[in-house]
């Protein structure tokens, strides 16, 4: 018996659930679905982004809609076009075995006349952005005076975007006796105001604690001088070769600029913001979902439609104006039971904001340092070795082997390995050998150890052994037994990791891992060459002027030549057609 059946869902939805491969309800689904199915009530559900809220309200809504009537019975309001389309597509998938049920998306940037025609043909469920919905009400293109259910999805984000007046105006056209279901990641005062004004004794469901972040996301911050912010971003990307990330900027202008710089420096990047047309945004998101883009630079508003489960990192290039927005950003990673990392790049003057965010999300940030050039070289070298070890042999190369053997026959196995790896290693080493230390001087409130008197270690276990930075730190503390705060600056990669202790404990650390085995596998610890930091480094040209690079180059030059990314991330500023959903808004979308 599928666990969703126990929640009371009907045969048609269970069939769709089985086809989509869903097996176990998330916590918000487990709590909300039985209530919404069995009671006619208002509800406020607080749950972190990425916890399955769409299904939590979508399944009961589909069950309760009379699909034999063509009258509009349900209205779902969402903050952005992307999220509106995402919800619509999901509802269509959930209801694919429910005959006659029609769900229509209403959003800016598309023909309002075509959308009105779709509604006129019969739409039991409308999914809409507030601006376009209000526009259609004013033009008398839609009638929501007899709806039974109104759902406010991502309510906090809609209100944060300035849609309070639109939402209150839309709700004023709905009947008093309807049920209102409000779903939100956080509970700021504006959401409370809506709940008090338009809801009748709502049932409240909270997954975790109010405003908290996902338990699957670790939080870390890096302190740099403001002028080094972009160089720091590139180092973080180079130190994580398999990065698949969303990078958040505050404004459209900064979003476009950072994306263009990344593309120019050879990274697979693109921008996502409100100045792109709907077609451009669709192309960017398609490329991102297909992993043709590894680094998506986005504004908070545009990112509301991102529903991708495998994002490894969220990078806060700039902190948001509203602390609650950080919860939405970090919720882009650590989804579907997977772990993720939320990184924050801050200047010294911004470090106080970290404390404020910690209080809001009830999580602790770990202070980390921007990786040095030596450390990046080490990471990239072992990443290449792992890629080679996992590569499948293409036997079409057999034809060319005799000629290859002839060219390389004078070299020993060791010489060939050195030559092969030197191609990539030299590229990174030459670039980073004079790179300056980007870490800003501590303000005295940092939790990490000082570089002075600290030793950096390499250990040959990592993510594939089941570790993240928190579990590896606990393992090291238990194994070394050097004190609670002895181990710091833990960085976990796929098959290896780094950590620091004070130099006084160096001999004890090395001795502890002599002949050490973990589940039958030998665990080796070596002292990293880059154990000090900050001793060398040119103060001349910055990283940005030398051109960044990642493992996959399009040419041997540090700055790739020729064509730009064609998925809407270049210099095009074409705006979407029709009236904007977000009227009288600032540049921050």
UniProtKB/TrEMBL annotation:
Gene Ontology MF terms in the entry: ATP binding; hydrolase activity; nucleic acid binding; RNA helicase activity
GO annotations of cellular component type: cytosol
Protein keywords: ATP-binding, Helicase, Hydrolase, Nucleotide-binding
Motif Q motif, residue numbers: 2-30
Alphabetical list of PANTHER family matching this protein: ATP-DEPENDENT RNA HELICASE RHLE, ATP-DEPENDENT RNA HELICASE RHLE-RELATED
Residue spans of biased composition, Low complexity class: 565-574
Pfam families for this protein: DbpA, DEAD, Helicase_C
Listed PROSITE patterns: DEAD_ATP_HELICASE (PS00039), HELICASE_ATP_BIND_1 (PS51192), HELICASE_CTER (PS51194), Q_MOTIF (PS51195)
Domain Helicase ATP-binding: 34-205
Family the entry assigns: Belongs to the DEAD box helicase family.
Span list, region Disordered: 527-589
Domain Helicase C-terminal as annotated: residue spans: 216-376
Ranges annotated as biased composition (Basic residues): 580-589
Ranges for domain DEAD-box RNA helicase Q: 2-30
Cited InterPro entries: DbpA/CsdA_RNA-bd_dom (IPR005580), DEAD/DEAH_box_helicase_dom (IPR011545), DEAD/DEAH_RhlB (IPR044742), DEAD_box_RNA_helicase (IPR050079), Helicase_ATP-bd (IPR014001), Helicase_C-like (IPR001650), Nucleotide-bd_a/b_plait_sf (IPR012677), P-loop_NTPase (IPR027417)
Name of this protein: ATP-dependent RNA helicase DeaD
């Amino acid at each position: 018996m599928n666990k969703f059946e126990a929640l009371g869902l009907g045969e048609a939805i269970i069939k769709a659930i089985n086809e989509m491969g869903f097996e176990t309800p998330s916590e918000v689904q487990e709590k909300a679905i039985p209530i919404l199915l069995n009671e006619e009530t208002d509800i406020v559900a607080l749950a972190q982004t990425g916890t399955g809220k769409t299904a939590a309200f979508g399944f009961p809504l589909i069950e309760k809609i009379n699909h034999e009537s063509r009258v509009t019975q349900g209205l779902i309001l969402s903050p952005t076009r992307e999220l509106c389309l995402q919800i619509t597509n999901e509802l269509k998938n959930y209801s694919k075995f429910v005959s006659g049920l029609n769900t229509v998306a209403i959003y800016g940037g598309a023909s309002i006349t075509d959308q009105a025609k779709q509604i006129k043909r019969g739409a039991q469920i409308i999914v809409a952005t507030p601006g376009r919905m209000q526009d259609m009400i004013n033009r008398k293109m839609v009638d929501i005076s007899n709806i039974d259910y109104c759902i406010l999805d991502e309510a906090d984000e809609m209100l944060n975007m300035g849609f309070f007046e639109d939402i209150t105006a839309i709700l004023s056209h709905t009947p008093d006796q309807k049920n209102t279901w409000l779903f939100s990641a956080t509970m700021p005062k504006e959401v409370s105001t809506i709940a008090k004004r338009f809801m009748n004794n709502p049932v409240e469901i909270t997954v975790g604690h109010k405003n908290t972040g996902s338990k699957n996301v670790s939080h870390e911050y890096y302190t740099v001088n403001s002028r080094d912010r972009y160089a720091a971003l590139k180092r973080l990307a180079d130190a994580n070769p398999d990065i698949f990330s969303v990078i958040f900027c505050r404004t459209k202008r900064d979003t476009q600029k950072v994306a263009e710089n990344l593309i120019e420096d050879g990274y697979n990047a693109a921008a996502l913001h409100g100045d792109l047309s709907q077609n451009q945004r669709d192309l960017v998101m398609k490329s991102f979902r297909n992993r043709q883009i590894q680094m998506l630079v986005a504004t908070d508003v545009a990112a509301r439609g991102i529903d991708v489960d495998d994002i490894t990192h969220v990078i806060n290039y700039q902190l948001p104006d509203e602390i609650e927005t950080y919860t939405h950003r970090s919720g882009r990673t650590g989804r579907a039971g997977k772990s993720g990392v939320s990184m924050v790049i801050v200047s010294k003057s911004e470090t106080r904001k970290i404390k404020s965010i910690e209080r809001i999300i009830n999580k602790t940030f770990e202070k980390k340092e921007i990786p040095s050039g030596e450390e990046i070289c080490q990471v990239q070298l072992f990443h290449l070795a792992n890629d080679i070890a996992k590569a499948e042999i293409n036997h079409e190369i057999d034809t060319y082997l005799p000629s290859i053997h002839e060219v390389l026959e004078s070299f020993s196995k060791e010489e060939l390995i050195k030559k092969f790896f030197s191609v990539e290693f030299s590229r990174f080493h030459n670039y980073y050998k004079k790179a300056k230390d980007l870490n800003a001087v501590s303000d005295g409130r940092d939790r990490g150890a000082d570089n002075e008197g600290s030793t950096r270690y390499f250990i040959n276990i990592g993510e594939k052994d089941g570790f993240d930075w928190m579990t590896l730190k606990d393992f090291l503390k238990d194994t070394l037994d050097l004190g609670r705060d002895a181990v710091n600056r833990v960085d976990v990669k796929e098959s290896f990791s780094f950590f620091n202790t004070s130099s006084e404990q160096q001999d004890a650390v090395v001795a502890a891992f002599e002949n050490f085995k973990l589940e039958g596998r030998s665990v080796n610890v070596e002292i990293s060459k880059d154990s000090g930091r900050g001793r060398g480094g040119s103060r001349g040209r910055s990283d940005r002027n030398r051109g960044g690079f990642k493992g996959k180059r399009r040419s041997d030059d540090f700055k790739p030549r020729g064509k730009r990314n064609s998925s809407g991330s270049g210099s095009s500023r074409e705006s979407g057609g029709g009236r904007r959903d977000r009227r009288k808004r600032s540049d921050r979308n």
